[in-house]
Amino acid sequence: MSGNERGGETFLAKVYKGWRITVYEPVREYLDLEIGDTLRVTVQKDERRARP
C-alpha cells in the first residue's frame, strides 16, 4: 500500500494547521477510501468532557 503508514495506521489527509486524520484500515475499506481521496470532516470539541 502506498502513502504514509505508521504502526498499522494509514494517514490519508493533512488538514488545517498540520492536523492529521487517522483512518484505520477497516474504516478505510468500509468507506472505500484510497490514498489521495478527498475526505471532508468536521472537527468539533466535546464540551462535555471533564477537564483536569
TrEMBL record:
Protein name stated in the entry: SpoVT-AbrB domain-containing protein
Organism: marine sediment metagenome
